[in-house]
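Sample intake sheet
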Amino acid sequence: TINAEQIATLRGLGIAITTLSSAYIWKRGLSALKQIGPARENEILPMRSLLEAGVPVCLATDNVPVSLWPSISHVVERKDRETGTVVSPDQRISVEQALRCVTVDGAWLCGDEKIRGMLTEGRQADLIVVDQDPLVCQTSDLSSISADLTMVDGMIVYQKPRWEDSTSQAL
């Protein structure tokens, strides 16, 4: 848990947070809530409070799962995996904010903010093309988004195979 005083200290010291939302919300959020009580609910991975205070927050996976889409889903929906109960609903963040946590803030945390994190001229063109638009899909679909194409430094390093019948024609 992180309280308001601790958030102010983090901000004052210029400390960034990297977090495992799968652990702190999805797997153990409801048990944490039962342990600390509803009066302190907003201390359970307080994403909105951290971002509003100007603390850079990066989402992580610890490699399970390897995709960041479930982590994005966790901080947007904040649902417990067993019951679907929303944990600390006031700490939900938008999809746009979550995407910033995995791009701009992630690059900053690595000290790469001048070469990565945004698609702008002069920066490395690391990007993915996804099978759904995260800004318009249902939030419940965020965790199932997958890459159709991946580029690293401007080079295609992965492209999902297309199993189209070559004899079919558009109508």
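Comment: The mean pLDDT is 91. The radius of gyration is 18 Å.
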